[in-house]
């Protein structure tokens, strides 16, 4: 099946549920969470499993590229996303699961989302009738497990710039593997623009950025002389990240714990990132 045929099928059957790796869809069907009228298997669409470098230098990564391939083939260029990918499920899940499926499911806890937000990625979606739409990651998530896709649209790819500075992802779970995040955090430093990117996971109805924290930090960091990180700046950054969250109490953790953990993860990942950017001047 070609991409055009997939788009035509989705237009003709807007209720059809797309399946890529199936690691979310099949679980929902097995547990009777949903009974789709039809499934649209995207695995035969070869374009979705490809990635390339676009004219503007960004990577265009097909929605069907698995976590395993992302780690192996793009880990050096997308270190934040690759770090997150390494925490997803198990080798079996990473061999099947995709960022496209993560975006489709749009869980507040999806591990791919914080690094996409921190990197300022864009999601390419398409419909047979209206063509391509580019949606900034920060506008893609519209509610708990809801995204900006319309009934006749499919996710084609995500566009993301190769890292221009250090990137880190941190996730808290009740164990080290096969676990949904209690909360998570991603940071990306963009030294060429003197900007900071952030992404919070499992900390609000949708994954989101901490924009006040980004702006504060971008203004405080000594990009030029790369002086060591001021602990007071790291602390304030942590507070602002925590303040950007609107977490809930649930079986995985309390809202208070999540707020606290986000501040810790923000300070910690910032310290790692700044130590990479300003080597030889490490603070711990
Ligand atoms: C045991 C287990 C452990 C897991 N651990 C983690 C974890 O640690 N972290 C994490 O984030 N997730 C985890 N997951 C959830 C899941 O693996 C991820 O969300 C994964 O990214 C889904 O990708 P997929 O290709 O399998 O998606 P699928 O199940 O095929 O699809 C998921 C959703 O996206 C839609 N979709 C897929 N492709 C497209 C497309 N091209 N256009 C439009 N819609 C599309 C589908 O219709 C569906 O709604 C786990 C799941 C299992 C079963």
Automatic annotation (TrEMBL):
Record has Flavoprotein as a keyword: yes
FAD-binding PCMH-type domain sequence ranges: 1-165
Keyword annotations: FAD, Flavoprotein, Oxidoreductase
InterPro entries assigned: CO_DH_flav_C, CO_DH_flav_C_dom_sf, Diverse_Substr_Oxidored, FAD-bd_PCMH, FAD-bd_PCMH-like_sf, FAD-bd_PCMH_sub1, FAD-bd_PCMH_sub2, Mopterin_DH_FAD-bd
Coiled-coil region(s): none
Keyword Oxidoreductase: yes
Molecular function terms from GO: FAD binding; oxidoreductase activity
Superkingdom of source: Bacteria
Transmembrane segments: none
Name this protein carries in UniProt: Carbon-monoxide dehydrogenase medium subunit
Organism: Actinomadura rubrobrunea
